[in-house]
Design a protein that fits this description.
Helix content is 46%, strand content 7%. The protein is built from 18 helices and seven strands. The strands form two sheets. The chain has a five-stranded parallel β-sheet, sandwiched between helices. It has a two-stranded antiparallel sheet with strand order 1-2. α3 runs parallel beside α4 and α12 packs across α13. It is globular, with a radius of gyration of 23 Å. It binds flavin-adenine dinucleotide.
């Protein structure tokens, strides 16, 4: 078989390239499909900017907001440079993968495609469509699992027997399983000369512009290079892993937690690489509760992904994993729409909630402690449909990860698999504990303490009590 590629160079079947379809795995390090493709010969790594990712969510917000889109474009730019430095290239195309990939395979005479598997419905549908289109033209497709620290084949149970609670899961894992060691990036990569395609700008994609905001302290730049730099900084140079367990609930200081989530979510960083660096730190500096806790958090990340495999679409549905039909307030009534708008704008009158929501809107990030508080406030004090909150986060988060986001929201809304009745965060107490001197609130809310600052939109305890009564009624506890 012989063909002609984009630049008119002759191309022989002896070196038929494998297509490497990239999605949330935008790195060279610890990348099994890439290693598998390189072992066969030339490889054509391709990223498709799927117009469906640029659409809107049911509540009307952009599916991929500007923070994440900017981060993605930066990541692609960095990845292209990394491929080129090794002799290869990264191909970028606009279009649906099930249309772009078969056309590319035919152009190249490719007979093999490799990719990382995803876990949730929308992504799996895309995979099925790609596989169907490629199989129909004689291209074989090979999927690899790679998003988690533990490989599902190494778990001491089948995924359809995944324990109902995180603690049980964690104990089994810690006793009976181990992560696989990360694999290094290939040194040389050969990509046939085809038109690489331009990486579009944010403007060209019609994204909203991101205003400069002097309050933003954490502005992650996309790419494997910055991912590794952040890992090096947090663990080694700033030596913050040593005290992570004590500082991780900090709201303001960038180094209080690892801030690795944006890179992990887009796959610019492998969780196995983080894990192996933590082990090295334990060998070379110190092993303590903090080093353990970093791995512990990665287990949560894994758990949510495995939960999504076991419970499928329940993580996206209002009744959640508990199948609880609760009387959520929805945007159909105008009063709820106003209340929801106050929550999104960060004008609830509760400084901790407002600072976090304004941080999210200005930067695409807010800390785990802040996320838990705002999610509790929306669902337990305002009684508003938690899926609206999850969509708001999906749109804005620079570290949006489908299973971490929707899984955490089911927990916060009390419909996760580990739900323990109606539990709400006492925002007053949380503020006193985690923002004792008010530095976080003052940083984000210049009007705090002036007459311009909004009044409390609800009474914390009365609103929680009223929603608890509805909850108890719905679950039959009254
Ligand atoms: P660190 O404290 O340094 O933790 C290290 C890593 O462990 C994180 O980067 C992350 O990959 C993982 N991790 C930590 N906590 C969790 C957790 N609770 N669940 C899953 N993984 C965790 N995280 C996302 O990555 N994407 C999301 O879309 C997302 N949505 C969330 C929505 C809600 C309502 C809540 C309460 C939490 C959400 N989280 C999400 C989890 C958590 O808030 C972030 O992972 C964390 O704040 C990222 O900051 P970090 O990297 O400094 O975390």
């Amino acid at each position: 078989m012989a063909g002609t590629l984009g630049l008119g160079r002759p191309f022989t079947g002896m070196h038929t390239p494998a297509i490497l379809w990239l999605r949330n795995d935008l790195r060279l390090d610890d990348h099994h499909p890439l290693r598998a493709a390189v072992a066969r010969g030339p490889v054509v790594p391709i990223y498709c900017l799927d117009p469906r990712q640029l659409g809107t969510l049911p509540s009307g917000v952009p599916k991929t907001g500007a923070f994440r889109l900017r981060f993605l474009l930066e990541t692609l730019t960095d990845l292209r440079a990394a491929y080129r430095a090794r002799g290869g290239d990264l191909i970028v195309r606009m279009g649906r993968p099930d249309v772009v990939l078969p056309a590319l395979a035919q152009q190249l005479g490719a007979t093999h495609l490799v990719y990382h598997e995803e876990a949730t419905d929308e992504e799996l549908r895309v995979e099925s469509a790609v596989e169907a289109a490629l199989t129909a033209i004689g291209v074989s497709c090979e999927g690899f699992w790679g998003h988690t620290l533990y490989h599902p084949d190494d778990l001491p149970f089948a995924l359809d027997e995944l324990p109902d609670t995180f603690t049980t899961y964690r104990k089994h894992i810690e006793r009976d399983a181990a992560p696989r060691a990360p694999i290094d990036a290939p040194e040389r990569i050969t990509t046939p000369a085809i038109d690489p395609g331009a990486i579009p700008t944010l403007d060209a994609l019609g994204a909203a512009s991101i205003p400069d905001d002097a309050r933003v302290l954490f502005r992650p730049r996309g790419g494997e290079t910055t991912a590794r730099a952040r890992l090096q900084h947090f663990i080694w140079d700033a030596d913050r892993l040593r005290t992570y367990k004590d500082t991780r609930n900090g709201l303001l200081s960038v180094d209080d937690s690892s801030k690795l989530s944006p890179w992990l979510a887009l796959g610019a960083l492998s969780p196995r690489r983080v894990w192996s660096e933590v082990l090295r730190y334990e060998r070379e500096r110190v092993a303590n509760d903090s080093t353990y806790w970093m791995i512990f958090e990665l287990l949560w990340r894994d758990y949510f992904r495995f939960v999504a495999v076991r419970w499928e679409n329940a993580i996206f549905q209002r009744p959640g994993l508990q199948r609880l039909t609760l009387p959520w307030r929805t945007l159909r009534d105008a009063r709820t729409a106003d209340d929801f708008a106050q929550w999104t704008a960060g004008t609830t009158g509760y400084p901790l909630v407002d600072a976090a929501m304004q941080e999210l809107a200005a930067s695409g990030y807010t800390s785990n402690r802040a996320r838990q508080n705002v999610a509790s406030f929306l669902t337990k004090n305002l009684g508003i449909d938690w899926t609206l909150g999850a969509e708001w986060f999906e749109s804005l988060l620079v570290d949006y990860d489908v299973t971490s986001n929707w899984g955490n929201w089911t927990y916060s809304a009390g419909v996760g698999n580990d739900a323990r009745g109606f539990r709400f965060f006492n925002i007053h107490k949380q503020s006193a504990q985690y923002d004792p001197d008010g530095a976080f609130a003052r940083h984000w809310l210049p009007a705090l303490g002036t007459s311009a600052y909004p009044a409390l939109m609800v009474d914390l305890f009365a609103s929680a009590k009223s929603h608890e009564a509805k909850y108890r009624k719905a679950v039959g506890w009254t």
